[in-house]
């Protein structure tokens, strides 16, 4: 065949074959370019999904107990088609969860994007997992962003160090720090992930100027901290907190103060037989998390969290953004078993659970009979751990912030099966997550039409809020903003209604006790 005709034939084949090949490649393996290099993901459910994307260098060896540092650049295209291991931990963050694979090399994030091009500038929700700062995983199926992303937002789930590897404060660490502080490495990871989002999310079709941080339980506590942290300023434009915040008086929780956290850190090191920071850094990671020794909480320190969230919001220093927060009607059912609770053992049971409480708090929850004691235990633990913090957070933002607050009480009871680990939980801690992520179909339970309606409504509220700072939208029950004058709360159940602050009688007693402890009135009054 003459060369001329041969070249024509080759060109013709390229014209026919090349577009088809490109389309297949795009469908099977979407690509994006980050500041460190190119990555390829997968296509599923009409989305581009990237798993195990590094946002910081592995915090191992000499980087253990140091602020996260940038990822080293790579050449070629890195595959981002499989979840990375979770950060070192023991156990699981939710009952019934499959334990994740773990590693000290764990600073990765995952992205679900519906964008068809990098020019779309879609809203972004960054999810911060809960787990009491001792466990949690960015790859847990319940947190997958497929359903929410199909409603027009990008979902990013981020990992952060937990337990002693994430929150150890120690005098030697404070001395080596240029900021004269230690602890909060897990919070620094969250901030590093948000910084990564600012620099890179546009390549995935996202808008770095429309980022919502969202979390549940300790993830929500993190949201309250990020609102208070000067290090997080400008990294997000909205905030969602589900069942968690850090607002109680530090007089009742002195462990959060740096000096006390350092002392606890020294005791922890001694318990491991380590007499120096150098020895601690040489210990195997699994030994460090085997017994956390209580080293699993944030610290008030000069760098990340110079003042508590309560102080930041009281003085108007917070990162002032629209806020959507709330808690669940039966939070404590997921956390305690009251089967054997009696009137005779109530006081001592509470002391064993949370420490000694002021008499007025115990008296606010009548427990003269065994049945009263069961309900009192559930109510007191609910309000102590979650209810008061969310009420305080809402009032503080409504007082000193210029941005709106939307406050909810989740009341829908999932059809938890008899004999399951969730039996009898009702609208407990964790229960809203299936509805928020619209993941009812992940469980073969007897979901009703009402459940599916609530999931559709709640997921739409969350997405609308991420888009505009207002959860309201067409075909949704109206959700009024919370103000200190009216205190309107959206009751999320079937049907959705509007009411006052739930359990207000007990919360008011908490408020009075905390005011006495602080020695000054609550800021919102």
Structure description:
The protein is of the alpha/beta class. The chain has a single domain, classed as Rossmann fold (3-Layer(aba) Sandwich), CATH 3.40.50.1820. Helix content is 35%, strand content 15%. It has 16 helices and 16 strands. The strands form 3 sheets. The chain has an 11-stranded mixed sheet with strand order 3-4-8-10-9-11-12-13-14-15-16, sandwiched between helices. A 3-stranded mixed sheet has the order 1-2-5, with no helix packed on it. A two-stranded parallel ribbon has the order 6-7. α6 links the parallel β11 and β12. It is globular and about 70 Å long. The N and C termini lie far apart (92 Å). The N terminus is likely disordered.
What attributes does this structure have?
525 residues, alpha/beta, Rossmann fold, 11-stranded mixed beta sheet, 3-stranded mixed beta sheet, 16 helices, disordered N terminus
SSE blueprint and pairings:
Layout: H1 3-28, E1 31-34, E2 37-40, E3 42-44, E4 47-54, E5 77-79, E6 86-87, E7 102-103, E8 108-113, E9 122-128, H2 146-149, E10 154-158, H3 163-167, H4 171-176, H5 185-200, E11 206-216, H6 218-228, E12 238-242, H7 258-271, H8 277-282, H9 285-290, H10 309-314, E13 323-328, H11 346-354, H12 359-363, H13 370-400, E14 405-410, H14 433-436, H15 449-468, E15 489-492, E16 497-499, H16 504-518
Parallel strand pairs: 2-5, 6-7, 9-10, 9-11, 11-12, 12-13, 13-14, 14-15
Antiparallel strand pairs: 1-2, 3-4, 4-8, 8-10, 15-16
């Amino acid at each position: 065949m003459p060369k001329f005709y041969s070249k024509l034939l080759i060109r013709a084949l390229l014209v026919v074959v090349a577009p088809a090949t490109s389309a297949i490649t795009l469908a099977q393996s979407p690509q994006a370019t980050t500041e460190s290099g190119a990555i390829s993901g997968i296509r599923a459910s009409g989305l581009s999904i990237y798993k195990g994307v590094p946002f910081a260098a592995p915090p191992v060896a000499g980087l253990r107990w140091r602020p996260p540092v940038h990822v080293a650049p790579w050449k070629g295209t890195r595959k981002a088609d499989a979840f990375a291991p979770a950060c070192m931990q023991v156990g699981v963050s939710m009952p019934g969860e499959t334990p994740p694979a773990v590693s000290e090399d764990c600073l990765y994030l995952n992205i679900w994007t519906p964008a068809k091009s990098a020019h779309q500038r879609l809203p972004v929700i960054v999810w911060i997992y809960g787990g009491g700062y001792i466990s949690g995983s960015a790859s847990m199926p319940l947190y997958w962003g497929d359903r929410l992303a199909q409603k027009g937002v990008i979902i990013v789930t981020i990992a952060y160090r937990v337990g002693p590897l994430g929150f150890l404060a120690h005098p030697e660490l404070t001395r080596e720090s240029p900021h004269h502080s230690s602890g909060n490495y897990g919070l620094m990871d969250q901030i590093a992930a948000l910084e990564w989002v600012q620099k890179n999310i546009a390549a995935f079709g996202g808008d770095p100027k429309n980022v919502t941080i969202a979390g549940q339980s300790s993830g929500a506590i993190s949201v309250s901290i990020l609102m208070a942290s000067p290090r997080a300023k400008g990294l997000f434009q909205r905030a969602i907190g589900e069942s968690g915040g850090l607002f109680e008086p530090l007089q009742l929780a002195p462990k959060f103060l740096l000096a006390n956290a350092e002392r606890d850190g020294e005791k922890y090191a001694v318990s491991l037989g380590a007499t120096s920071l150098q020895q601690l850094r040489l210990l195997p990671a699994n030994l460090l998390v085997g017994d956390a020794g209580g080293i699993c909480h944030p610290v008030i320190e000069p760098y990340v969290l110079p003042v508590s969230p309560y102080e930041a919001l009281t003085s108007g220093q917070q990162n002032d953004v629209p806020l959507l927060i709330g808690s669940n009607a039966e939070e404590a059912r997921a956390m305690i078993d009251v089967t054997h609770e009696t009137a005779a053992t109530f006081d001592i049971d509470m002391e064993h659970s949370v420490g000694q409480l002021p008499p007025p708090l115990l008296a606010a929850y009548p427990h003269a009979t065994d049945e009263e004691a069961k309900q009192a235990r559930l109510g007191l633990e609910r309000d102590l751990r979650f209810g008061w913090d969310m009420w305080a957070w809402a009032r503080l933002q409504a007082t000193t912030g210029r941005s709106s607050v939307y406050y909810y009480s989740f009341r829908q009871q999932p059809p938890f099966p008899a004999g399951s680990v969730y039996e009898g939980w009702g609208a407990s801690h964790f229960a809203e997550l299936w509805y928020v992520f619209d993941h009812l179909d992940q469980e073969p339970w007897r979901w009703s039409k009402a459940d599916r309606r609530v999931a559709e409504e709640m997921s739409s509220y969350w997405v609308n809020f991420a888009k505009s700072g207002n959860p309201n939208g067409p075909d949704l029950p109206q959700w009024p903003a919370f103000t200190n004058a009216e205190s309107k709360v959206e009751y999320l159940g079937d049907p959705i209604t509007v009411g006052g602050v739930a359990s207000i009688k007990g919360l008011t007693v908490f408020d009075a006790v905390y005011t006495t402890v602080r020695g000054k009135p609550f800021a919102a009054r």
